[in-house]
């Protein structure tokens, strides 16, 4: 339904966000300032002990400096209570004493129908609970007792029983006035394909209610008592209430437990979740008969930044873990990942708890592995790498996996971890396994610093000359191939040219591009010439260096020029970023003993070297780590950066004194 203008603004003004949030958190009164409406608390969306969740009650917004959750009162209710937008608005309106506008008839009808189906589901849960107490459910109660669930536990989980009758539930509900079409729409009964009377979907099964994040019964799960049943476990079909790809078993209870500090554990099925929760691991959830979906993964991350995935220790469990790795890789962020806890072979969490108790399960959870280890395990377990080709294939698969991670810093850390694992596999410690290289202190290929010829070159005498040459490559290539200008428009706007003539050409290029538009790019070079005259352009084209640049040689096309431009921009950014880092770190130096600053300089030098040498991030991190180049280069770059920082400081002092 649509809301009238100003309704939401008035609603937000009437409610106190701090009061709403205060029901879910404990305020840190040492940091909070009640008089200013400035409130701080541990974040309700992720596990933490410090108060990084901030509420500005006057503005009506919250923000977490840890997980970056943000929003207003409406979004807070939606996230914490799993409400739809209009449901959250209605809840706040009731609290503020505001009357909701008249609803759209179709939307009202749909909401009323969902509420009616939810009530039908509740009636079904109550009916199956009554059947659980009958003599027919004796074998079911015995089975559950053998799984460690007593009467009180069965009551806590509202476990029921569906007798093996064709219309037991259908007749019960319709006898109470529930329309037959509602029983079918709720997924409790189905119509035969050949026609005839509806029949119960659940027969001869132990029944587990499935509730959504608000605690409403939306579906049922049933475990067959007949060992020859076609499906051991059966869930409700998808309905207006139930979307199995967006629902997690035990979500409402787990959210509350995780908010109090319990770990979030993802198991495979109902019995695993119930066993975990009864053993004290209350933050357990499970998907419903399918692999974890993207939506479920996002739901998990809203509860905890690093859920523990506890899977059965069989081939199926391992395959499920590997599928989840592929799903998670492109969605990883700093501070948001998964850990994996694979059970011993042939066991599930319920087996582990029954055999060794909660302590055995806690020990396994404490040894849960980070996702990078599972990625490595997938690519190496059971495989032989006895040839360069097989090793290269492994490197390629790992590079492709790491490239899917969107955050550059996180990719780098994955690369570093893979480098360590790779070295442990191919270069195990100990003189007996290292061959003729044993005892070598340093790779003979390690860079030893600039050669005498390089030190005598003009580029070494004037480091800025290299930057001016790259500026020239960018400008000359764009003038020669103006069709590329739209692709580099924003990068050209940010380019700060060292050479004044280059700066004039850059400004003229942008002016002509905006004047001519993308439909008349061929006219841009002539427009630049009219603005500046022939002198600056002839001087640019006369640079001998440009004669060998791909894209500027006779006959070269725009694609070669594109690569040259991209390369020049990459190297310029790396060079200037490195210099800025050195300058910033130098300002913080309080003596060469500052290891943190030294580390920053070494990392900046490494980034610069990667860009200047054309080495990709993941290649530097693990493909070249085997022969020791990475370690030696870092040492050399860090030492060189330290010396350059000291020299920079001395030159700066001389300038200041003069």
From TrEMBL:
It catalyses: ssDNA + n NTP = ssDNA/pppN(pN)n-1 hybrid + (n-1) diphosphate. GO terms for biological process: DNA replication, synthesis of primer. Keywords: DNA replication, DNA-binding, DNA-directed RNA polymerase, Magnesium, Metal-binding, Nucleotidyltransferase, Primosome, Transcription, Transferase, Zinc, Zinc-finger. Residues 262-344 form the Toprim domain. A zinc finger (CHC2-type) spans 43-67. Binds 1 zinc ion per monomer. The keyword Transit peptide does not apply. Pfam families: DnaB_bind (PF10410), DNAG_N (PF08275), Toprim_4 (PF13662), Zn_ribbon_DnaG (PF01807). It comes from the Bacteria. Its EC number is 2.7.7.101. GO terms for cellular component: cytoplasm; DNA-directed RNA polymerase complex; primosome complex. The keyword Membrane does not apply. Monomer. Interacts with DnaB. Belongs to the DnaG primase family. RNA polymerase that catalyzes the synthesis of short RNA molecules used as primers for DNA polymerase during DNA replication. This is DNA primase. The gene is dnaG.
């Amino acid at each position: 339904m649509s809301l009238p203008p100003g309704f939401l603004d008035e609603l937000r003004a009437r409610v106190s966000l701090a009061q709403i949030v205060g029901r879910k958190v404990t305020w840190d009164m040492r940091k909070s300032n009640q008089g200013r409406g400035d409130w701080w608390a541990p974040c309700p969306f992720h596990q933490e002990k410090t108060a990084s969740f901030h509420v500005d009650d006057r503005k009506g917004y919250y923000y977490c400096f840890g997980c970056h959750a943000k929003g207003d009162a409406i979004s807070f209710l939606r996230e914490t209570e799993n409400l739809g937008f209009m449901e959250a608005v209605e809840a706040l309106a009731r609290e503020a004493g505001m009357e909701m506008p008249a609803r759209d008839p179709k939307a009202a009808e749909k909401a009323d129908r969902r509420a009616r189906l939810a009530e039908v589901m509740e009636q079904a849960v109550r009916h199956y609970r009554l059947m659980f107490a009958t003599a027919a459910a004796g074998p079911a109660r015995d089975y559950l007792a053998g799984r460690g669930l007593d009467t009180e536990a069965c009551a806590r989980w509202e476990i029921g029983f569906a007798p093996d009758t064709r219309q037991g539930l259908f007749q019960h509900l319709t006898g109470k006035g529930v329309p037959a079409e509602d029983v079918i729409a709720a997924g409790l009964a189905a119509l035969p394909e050949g026609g005839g009377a509806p029949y119960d979907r659940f027969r001869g099964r132990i029944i587990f209610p499935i509730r959504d994040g608000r605690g409403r019964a939306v579906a049922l799960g049933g475990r067959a008592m007949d060992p020859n049943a076609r499906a051991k476990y059966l869930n409700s079909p998808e309905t207006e209430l139930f979307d199995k790809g967006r629902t997690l078993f035990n979500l409402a209870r787990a959210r509350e437990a995780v908010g109090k500090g319990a770990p979030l554990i993802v198991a495979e099925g109902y019995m695993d979740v119930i066993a975990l929760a009864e053993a004290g691991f209350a933050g357990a959830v499970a998907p419903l008969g399918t692999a974890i979906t993207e939506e479920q993964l996002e739901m998990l991350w809203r509860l905890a930044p690093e859920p523990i995935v506890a899977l059965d220790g069989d081939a199926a469990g391992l395959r499920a873990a590997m599928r989840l790795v592929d799903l998670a890789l492109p969605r990883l962020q700093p501070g948001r990942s998964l850990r994996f806890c694979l059970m011993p072979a042939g066991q599930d969490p319920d087996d582990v708890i029954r055999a060794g108790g909660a302590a055995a399960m806690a020990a396994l959870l404490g040894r849960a592995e980070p996702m990078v280890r599972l990625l490595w395990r997938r690519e190496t377990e059971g495989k032989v790498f006895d040839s360069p080709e097989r090793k290269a294939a492994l490197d390629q698969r790992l590079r492709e996996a790491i490239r899917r991670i969107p955050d550059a810093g996180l990719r780098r850390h994955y690369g570093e971890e893979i480098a360590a694992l790779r070295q442990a596999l191919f270069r195990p410690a100990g003189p007996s396994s290292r061959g003729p290289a044993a005892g070598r202190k340093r790779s003979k290929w390690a860079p030893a610093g600039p050669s005498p010829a390089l030190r005598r070159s003009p580029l070494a005498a004037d480091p800025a000359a290299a930057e001016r040459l790259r500026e020239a490559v960018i400008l000359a290539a764009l003038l020669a191939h103006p069709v590329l200008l739209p692709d580099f428009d924003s990068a050209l706007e940010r380019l700060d040219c060292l050479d004044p003539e280059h700066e004039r050409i850059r400004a003229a290029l942008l002016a002509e591009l905006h004047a001519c538009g993308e439909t008349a790019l061929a006219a841009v070079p002539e427009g630049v010439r009219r603005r500046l005259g022939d002198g600056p352009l002839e001087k640019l084209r006369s640079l001998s260096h440009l004669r060998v640049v791909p894209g500027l040689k006779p006959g070269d096309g725009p694609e070669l020029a594109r690569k040259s431009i991209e390369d020049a921009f990459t190297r310029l950014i790396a060079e200037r970023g490195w210099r800025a880092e050195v300058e910033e770190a130098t300002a913080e130096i309080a003596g060469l003993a500052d290891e943190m600053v030294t580390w920053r300089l070494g990392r900046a030098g490494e980034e610069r070297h990667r860009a200047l040498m054309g080495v990709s991030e993941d290649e530097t991190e693990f493909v070249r780590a085997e022969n020791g180049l990475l370690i030696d280069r870092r040492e050399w770059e860090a030492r060189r950066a330290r010396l350059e920082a000291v020299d920079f400081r001395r030159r700066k002092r001389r300038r200041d004194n003069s």
